[in-house]
Amino acid sequence: MLITQLVPAAVRAVEWFGDRPDATVFPGEDGHLRRGDSARRREFATTRACAREALAGLGVRPGPIPVGADRSPGWPAGVVGSLTHCACYRAAAVANSRAVRSVGIDAEPAHPLPRRVLERVTTQAERAALPADIHPLDRVLFSAKETLFKAWYPITRRYLGFLDATVEIRPPHRFLARILVDDCPTSLRGLLTGRYIVERGLVITALTVPHEGERS
Ligand SMILES: CC(C)(COP(=O)(O)OP(=O)(O)OC[C@H]1O[C@@H](n2cnc3c(N)ncnc32)[C@H](O)[C@@H]1OP(=O)(O)O)[C@@H](O)C(=O)NCCC(=O)NCCS
């Protein structure tokens, strides 16, 4: 598995390429899904199935993972986690909330990031730190920021803009992130270390936020 290479042992992660034939949508999960959009329904069901399998690894029985009004996943009590899906890939990562403060994951097709998107989501300094041949690190930078947002949001319940954090990529598999907002919670202050992989036409990133005082 690619995703398991990006998270510590305390985080249970499951991925799937394509859609799982056994995946079902649980009652209470699908209120927001448009009728007739069967591709989205299969993607949604497969991602949730990955999450339920990962939760089983924590000893959590299968149950609904509702979609919040803010679109974030509603994890069972005592669990933190994150979901991602793109083209042909779906993944979930979960952990006991006593072990980990928060986790974020993101996957993207490893296509070059359009220049105008790159300029909107990165600072001049971040772009300058990329090599002359920027691809696929441009996509890694974008994905790392989305992963950072998914780790940030459950802690703060607030939006974080792309320019509210900086990311520095440390090939072959690490990135360092720093949140720049003044009232950043203690667990998210300073340098946060994430991991990335570029394989099978995908960029996948993950960031695990330790509890305060447990950062190495
Ligand atoms: C929320 C967001 C990060 C999702 O990323 P994406 O690449 O569009 O989509 P992904 O497939 O990777 O992830 C989708 C999953 O994210 C999860 N998600 C949605 N909103 C979320 C939130 N506020 N917090 C945590 N997870 C969230 C959901 O589980 C969703 O899957 P589902 O709809 O099937 O339940 C993105 O749409 C967004 O709003 N980005 C702007 C904020 C940002 O990235 N800032 C950068 C800070 S440096």
Would you kindly provide a written description of the structure presented here, covering whatever features stand out?
24% of the residues lie in helices and 27% in strands. The chain has 4 helices and 8 strands, in the order βαβββαααββββ. Strand 7 (191-199) and strand 8 form a beta hairpin. A 5-stranded antiparallel beta sheet has the order 4-8-7-6-5, with helices on one face. It has helices at 38-56, 115-121, 124-128, 137-156, and strands at 12-17, 79-86, 89-96, 102-109, 165-170, 174-179, 191-199, 202-209. The longest helix has 20 residues, at 137-156. The protein folds into 2 domains: 3-100, no CATH class; 104-209, 4'-phosphopantetheinyl transferase domain (Ribosomal Protein L22, Chain A, Alpha-Beta Complex). It is α+β, with helices and mostly antiparallel strands and 216 residues long. The chain binds coenzyme A (COA).
Give the SSE layout.
Layout lengths: L11 E6 L20 H19 L22 E8 L2 E8 L5 E8 L5 H7 L2 H5 L8 H20 L8 E6 L3 E6 L11 E9 L2 E8 L7
Antiparallel strand pairs: 1-3, 2-3, 4-8, 5-6, 6-7, 7-8
